[in-house]
Design goal:
Length: 281
Amino acid sequence: MTVVPRPPAFAGQFYEADGAALARQVERCFLGRRGPGSLPSRHRSPTRTLVAGVVPHAGLEYSGEIAAHLYARIAAERAPSTVLVLGVDHYARSQGASLSARPWRTPLGPVPVDLDLVRALEQPPIEVDEAAHAAEHSIEVQLPFLDYVLPGPRFVALEIAFGPLGFLEEVGAIVRQAIEGRDVLVLASTDFSHFVPPEVADRLDHLALEAIVARDARRLYTTVAEHRISMCGIAPTTVLLAALADQPLGAKLLRWGHSGEVARMRDVVGYAAVALERAGG
């Protein structure tokens, strides 16, 4: 039976709706002044040290150059078999943690789903809920980059609602078990401070980033709560850190920036790209 892919819901809004124009837009993210400064290498390392990353999900015009720092790293190493993208539930459509079991489509083409990983992840409180993904952008905006830097990527979309730390740790434990023994790259999609002055975003975001670089899920969760940091992806980022807590990884901030670097504005949204990698990265 043919499964109809999830259509792009935000093409023409968060990124270009035409495939050729979108490819050029992604390339501008790599080449822009806040980006890596060059297109991804055509020559991959035969090994991969990158295990996971944190990337933003605003419109490509605003956050794409920041995200490109991580995607350049992905392009430089051996391609993973699957990418698990942990997304935000911005509109409270999920009952907790919602999977998609469909392929997705962007203007660059279809992105196949890894059904084996979906089945491994599908245990309470994680369930398949396509409706929860229908109008959520945090995962969708990663797909043009994945399509650009990986040859025929398989992926899994897991949208995670905000909840108590114990709930997020429980989801993290399921993710840890599901990816064990699999060649999976894990991405957490998040923006950081929302609509605050640039100096406030800088201060608050780096408090959260210090916890992420320390790979401390509990510290991140409590820091965001105590300082009232408007980090929309606290749930997926906490799950990522909890899932990988027992792995001997280092974390590195690749680039932080904000929307005011693109257009003049009094209050900005913060973005960051973070790489989590094995020794030698």
